[in-house]
Backbone:
């Protein structure tokens, strides 16, 4: 029997070869090429995933785990004949234990769905990569987001995993407690492995109390240096900073164009604080204003109510859409470097200079508390090579500063060349790990590292 | 040439075979057996460590990395012929970058030494396991401590490592930035591997601003349940809890005996908060008092000045000494289970019941915000088997509650049997990892996992 017919016989209606389904799974966000998988399987249980791996072993056909499909580096795009394993039907929230600050979920649950479920219990899961990503996919790429400066990313907020390995066995790694020193940390080996070492089928995640006293601030600065200085002063102050986002002057111009606003077209910081008490909030807010003004902020406004805060943050929230409408291209490429904090002004200045020199449309948005920023670049028809060169130069500059080519988007296909530059001494050991867990090359081949 | 003579020829005066030095390195804190190493080497550089591994390969003699020698599970005690690699001479602080919240240190630097160096810069390294442990050793066992509830343990606070592998090559893992998604997370594989996968020769660690507005509170409760309820209420409140330590009624009795005090002999919580502002502190302190009283605290006092805080916390700080003086034994065994928070009262009650039934002298001290607690048990002559049985029953109960046998002390020799119970499906893969990184069994054999 032909392999796909055999897959359909084993998994029945959970397998699709419809053209439109293959199309969707052959594309990646912000990734140039489309390559169709042979089929798409929608497992509904760990056993289904194990059945797919049994099939994969018998037919020597690789499997690509797919969450919500929001990855940005081609993580889910086939690099050869393969089937997509779409986990978006595994959406059960298996357990919520408020008194343990713990939830156990299937990999297809998105963080937004989880947070809607938790809201009435006064809890939330903090990692917010932006797109409505699935928790399994977020673990796969070690996602983080705007709140990482305070709450950490997936490594810090996933306590345990169930993983189906290449051979089909399901193992439990990590432990659903707040700390453990029991044996080798395999949990964090799977986090960030982009489906190349195993398929995540269950996650135990750490929950946090919903902040009650939230205040935000938006400030404009004469320069990125001044904005970075303000961010540093806030980080050093011990103030309960939960978000610190930079939008550059180009981004503010996009926003004014898109929303018809008259914001100063200057680098802006968007800040959010989670205070413990109402009285603390007021004193903290005053202190924040003092610090940002001292760093040179020219215009500062604060907000406390949810409506005010949403309005104040519109430029940050709508930036991506404003940019894409203002600079229509066929695609958008996002750089993702992170550098030691003191290098932020230097690398943002480099990005601006290169955008100008290379005549590219781009804007910078940054999680500056973590030294991580994205340049969003519109890739006009024919501009791909130039955009790629821009991205290369940013990644290389970040590496030269002791930084990383990817703060939160992962390696996928496109960043493999940077991986070798960033980890020259340890990439051979990453290859050994890949060979150990996936000797037949059945798990998302062509991503992260090539085994030989 | 005899192997040890050869080692001396290669490493010169850095090798000792003096009886007293072998003695010190043949013992472990709280570990029963003493077994002398063949020699002790005191490397002064990564190259020295590489030279020792070259020697180890040629002579097929294993190497045991030793930091400050404060590990509690026999991690540094030879299980067969081996040399100790004592890293306590590698004490250089190579870099402090306040603006990057970063320090780079050699493995022999203790966290207390690092913190003395950082104090003038308004920064600190938060992981405080108690004994003046070295940072290399703390990474080896994935240490944590009283501030972990707020700042995390070694996984969260070590960003990058240099590691010398079994074959002698030095590799760099992780990256000295606040976030990265670049390839497989090998850094966290070495953290907690207790010298069985490689020798840590350099660490890049994350620094935090020193808290300026600190307030503490000590409260006595009618029961451990009430104390745990208070701890939960505080965790759920979003108050800036930096430490939450439990001392049980037995411990307060030890303190009264040792220091001549008249504290209530009731379960006590010792709390510390790091506030952002002076005004916030006052409102937070009032809120903390309200919450602990609501949970049933019978006696509450607060402190703000450093002197008051130190005095208030004496019962927590001096507990171990008070216990050992009050219950002199030949040795002291510490359990180290961690459980989901809601199970704390149940497992502490079990510990109390077993101590009474088994006629053992013991007291409970807990990092209750993390669900981690220690029973300190005096091991009187002839009592070892009974104490071990007590420890087994606590570990098994913790595992049955979904917890871990070790929150922060690691596996070493004594907890290997629990590792298999805790991670039945993933221990075979830990063995594979061990075989991959140490095919000849040269790195601390007999600890954590046995390769076959």
Residues:
């Amino acid at each position: 029997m032909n392999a796909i017919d055999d897959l359909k016989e084993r998994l029945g209606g959970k397998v699709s070869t419809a053209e439109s389904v293959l199309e969707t799974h052959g594309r990646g966000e912000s990734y140039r090429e489309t390559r169709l998988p042979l089929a798409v399987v929608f497992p509904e249980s760990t056993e289904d995933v194990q059945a797919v791996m049994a099939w994969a072993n018998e037919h020597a056909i690789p499997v690509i785990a797919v969450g919500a499909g929001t990855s940005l580096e081609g993580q889910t795009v086939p690099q050869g004949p393969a089937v997509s394993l779409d986990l978006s039907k595994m959406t059960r929230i298996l357990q919520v234990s408020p008194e343990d600050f713990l939830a156990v979920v299937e990999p297809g649950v998105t963080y937004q769905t989880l947070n809607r479920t938790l809201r009435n219990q006064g809890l939330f899961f903090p990692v917010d990569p932006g797109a409505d990503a699935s928790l399994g996919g977020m673990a796969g790429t070690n996602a983080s987001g705007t709140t990482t400066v305070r709450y950490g990313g997936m490594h810090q907020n996933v306590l345990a995993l169930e993983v189906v390995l290449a051979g089909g066995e399901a193992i439990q790694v990590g432990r659903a407690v707040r700390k453990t020193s029991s044996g080798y940390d395999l949990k964090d080996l799977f986090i960030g492995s982009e489906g190349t070492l195993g398929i995540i089928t269950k996650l135990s995640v750490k929950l946090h109390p919903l902040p009650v006293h939230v205040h935000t601030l938006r400030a404009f600065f004469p320069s990125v240096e001044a904005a970075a200085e303000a961010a540093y002063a806030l980080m050093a102050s011990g103030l309960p900073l939960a978000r610190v986002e930079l939008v550059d002057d180009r981004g503010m111009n996009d926003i004014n164009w898109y929303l018809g606003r008259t914001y100063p077209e200057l680098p802006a910081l968007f800040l959010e604080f989670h205070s413990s008490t109402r009285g603390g909030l007021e004193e903290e807010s005053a202190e924040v204003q003092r610090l940002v003004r001292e760093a040179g902020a020219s215009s500062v406004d604060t907000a406390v109510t949810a409506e005010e805060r949403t309005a104040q943050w519109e430029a940050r929230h709508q930036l991506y859409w404003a940019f894409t409408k203002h600079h229509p291209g066929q695609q958008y490429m996002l750089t993702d470097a992170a550098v030691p904090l003191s290098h932020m002004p230097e690398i943002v200045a480099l990005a601006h200079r290169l955008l100008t020199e290379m005549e590219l449309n781009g804007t910078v948005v940054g999680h500056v508390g973590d030294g991580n920023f994205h340049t969003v670049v519109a890739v006009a028809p024919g501009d791909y090579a130039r955009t790629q060169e821009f991205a290369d130069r940013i990644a290389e500059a970040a590496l030269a500063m002791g930084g990383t080519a990817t703060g939160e988007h992962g390696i996928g296909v496109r960043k493999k060349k940077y991986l070798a530059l960033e980890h020259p001494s340890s990439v051979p050991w990453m290859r050994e790990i890949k060979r150990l867990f996936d000797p037949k090359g059945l798990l998302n081949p062509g991503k992260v590292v090539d085994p030989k």
User: Anything to note?
Assistant: Chain A has a mean pLDDT of 96. Chain A touches chain B through 101 residues (CB under 8 Å). The first helix of chain A runs from residue 3 to 11.
